[in-house]
Amino acid sequence: MHLNPYGRDPVLLAADLVNDPPSSHTELADRCLEAGLTPDWTVQPADLGTVRILLGRWTAVVDAEPGAARARLLNELLAAGTGPPRLTDHDGHWHLHYRDDGLDLPGVLHALIATGTALHLTARGMDRLGRCAAPACDRVFADVSRNGRQRYCSPRCGNTDAVRRHRDRRSPVQA
Q1: Mind listing the pLDDT tens digit for each residue in 45-54?
Q2: What's the Cα-to-Cα distance from 164 to each of 134, 137, 157, 172, rounded to whole Å?
Q3: Strands 86-88, 129-131: parallel, antiparallel or unpaired by DSSP?
């Protein structure tokens, strides 16, 4: 079975790159390879800045209210970085690509992240992107849980916030 590479993985990669930005273009390339991107591009020093701009636009989608506002921003991202779907068998298996051939790394990431986010939100729900609910955290997350109720970027943040809420309930009210 071959899974659609435009679904969950690019959205998780985008969240990872936003939460822990790469410090160099070579680190960016290494992390993309670790995430499973096919290296049909050569990374350039300028790619890091271009990808940071893309991630800023993606973060605006995350921060938008689910529904029409989020859809408008995502449609703009899709229009700017994807092509019409096309069949390809470049790896020996027929599948869809939503981008032109021969793109640089930022172009590939743009198409993967925009299309992956659109598929993620339409398949799982428009509210499946967000920011961590822990007061001291602003990391983004893509909710890939079964029940769709993720509120924290990690179990650690969820546990820390639960302890904080428990202590707040137990502490005496100050007058």
Answers
A1: 999 999 999 9
A2: 10, 13, 10, 14
A3: unpaired
